[in-house]
Amino acid sequence: MKSASTSSSLVRVRRIPVLPARHSEGHKGDYGRVLVVGGSLGMAGAPALAGMAALRGGAGLVTIAVPACILPTVAALCPCATTIELPATSDGQIDPVACLKIFGRRSLLARGGATPDALVVGPGLGLAPVPYGQQLWELIDAFREGGRCKAVVDADALNLAGLAGGSAPENWDCREHWSTVVTPHPGEMARLHGATTREVQADREGFAVRTARLLNARQPEAKCLSVVVLKGAGTVVTDGRRIYVNKTGNPGMATGGSGDVLSGVIAAAMGQGLDCFDAAVFGVQVHGRAGDLAVKVKGQASLIATDIIEALPAAMKGS
Predict the structure, then answer these.
(1) Fewer CB atoms inside 10 Å of the end CB: C or N, the chain?
(2) Would you say residue 3 has pLDDT above 60?
(3) pTM of structure
(4) Residues with Cβ within 8 Å of residue 180, at least 6 apart in sequence
């Protein structure tokens, strides 16, 4: 694949966005409502990490929706968030069809009211057959249709997106992606394109830009453009028109849960008013900076995801 990053129309961004200032009479509803949907039997930590990171990232209200079998664990891990009990399949994964009805009854899918400002889908979902993936993406579409809710799609939600190529309307590149940030690591990016991880790593900017342009090919509104965050050393952020290559972070951050933390921080920035591109740039820079601060205390070998969360306040001050 020829690198799209060499396009003369691609603007390289170096400025790091900042969060809007908080006003003296502000309340929690002013700073974003983030909904995290994920988790499965044996994977309670992932949605909890995303929720904790969203809170540390400045979100005013965070709700974590997970299968009933792991809800007590998630609530204990993240006591500052509220929770929603979701019906589960026999494998301990959320049931997307039943969840759609629950979210509808709670008015989470209607414009205004209880609709979240930002959605995080994917942490800890687990893998499943193709029909499950199609149902999950119908659930994601129900939230973001018409740009009513910004979304961060991560982890297993990307693995369930289906193969590229446009052979069926349910495939990831044949949908309208409204105001969405996708955060693949190189392996997930490779699966989206039927490529190898080595090919992705050899042309990180090219794959990221190509993916962003596919995401936005059916997006009629410029203000609702979607964004790709290709994780790894020198994380790439692009909406197909602009590109940012991150300089913060270190190898110690290659640890389970680090990506869940990033998703939470990006969603928090969205909830506070940043658009998808700016939220993604802010998120990856602060996330990497937190890792750089944490590694000074913990060392690279011992760094874990909760260390990154603990360092977020200092990283936010310095961003």
Answers:
(1) N
(2) no
(3) 0.95
(4) 144, 150, 151, 152, 153, 215, 226, 227, 276
